[in-house]
Amino acid sequence: GAVVSQHPSRVICKSGTSVKIECRSLDFQATTMFWYRQFPKQSLMLMATSNEGSKATYEQGVEKDKFLINHASLTLSTLTVTSAHPEDSSFYICSARDQSGDKWTDTQYFGPGTRLTVL
Amino acid sequence: GESVGLHLPTLSVQEGDNSIINCAYSNSASDYFIWYKQESGKGPQFIIDIRSNMDKRQGQRVTVLLNKTVKHLSLQIAATQPGDSAVYFCAEKGTSYDKVIFGPGTSLSVIP
Q1: I want to staple B75 with a disulfide (CB 3.0 to 4.6 A). Which of B1, B17, B21, B61 is the partner?
Q2: Per residue in A39-72, is it b (16+ CB within 10 Å) or e — as a string?
Q3: Does pLDDT of A46 surpass 80?
Q4: In 3D, which of B6, B55, B59 has the Cα closest to residue B37?
Q5: Is A46 in CB contact (< 8 Å) with chain B?
Q6: pLDDT tens readout for residues A4-30
């Protein structure tokens, strides 16, 4: 099946610094990628939809100036957590949509996640 | 955000028994549903999906049932194995290429 990678898998940073997380679709092109955040023992919460070549669409309550998303190519989207604080510590998961099929075969493939810890 | 759960409900089953995980979805306009399995520290893994024009779909050891009248989805796992221990999420999608929204999840623990 299709593979989505994330880098780094884990990152620890100091409060106030910025952290960039990469999401790559390895064997398919993804015009649309999604970024989720997951706190311990909770569900995945959609943060934003990343569209290649255009601005990301953010979910209500997600600060676009804090979580910068760039989708510069059909295989790469990046999420930058700016001026990170301890409350931003979370598991960040991306997914990439393979739109090569029809409506019913449209499938999102998820990355392995990135564990961010802000000290 | 949407559909964020606060505390994961837990289901414990004996190895070899069948498991049933339930999910209530929120959007009556959703027409595509997916079950995911998430192991600790990993991303979600696709298990099985179902379209809104179906009420049952079977895979290998798994069956998904959909009741649109009461907006209920269930995942049945036959002959549950220790490797099935994980958190299971149902997810819904509204239109053809819409975003996937996750339900609160259920933690399945298999007792050897």
Answers
A1: B21
A2: eeebbbbbbbbbebeeebebbeebeeeebbbebe
A3: yes
A4: B59
A5: yes
A6: 999 999 999 999 999 999 999 998 888
Which of A44, A47, A64, A98 best tests the B interface by mutation, with the highest count of B CBs <10 A?
A: A44
pLDDT greater than 60 at residue A44: yes
Give the gap in angstroms from C-alpha A65 to the nearest C-alpha of chain B.
16
Which residues, at least 6 apart from B43, have a Cβ–Cβ distance to it below 8 Å? A4, A6, A93, A95, A110, A111, A112, A113
Pairing of strands A10-13, A114-118: parallel
Check A45 against B2: CB less than 8 A apart.
yes
CA distances from A107 to A95, B18, B57, B80 (A): 10, 28, 17, 26
Rounded to 5 degrees, what are φ and ψ at B46? Answer: -60, 135
CB of B25 within 8 Å of any CB in chain A? no
Q: Per residue in B11-26, pLDDT tens? A: 999 999 999 999 998 8
Rounded distance, CA B90 to CA B52, Å? 14
User: Mean pLDDT throughout B53-66?
Assistant: 96
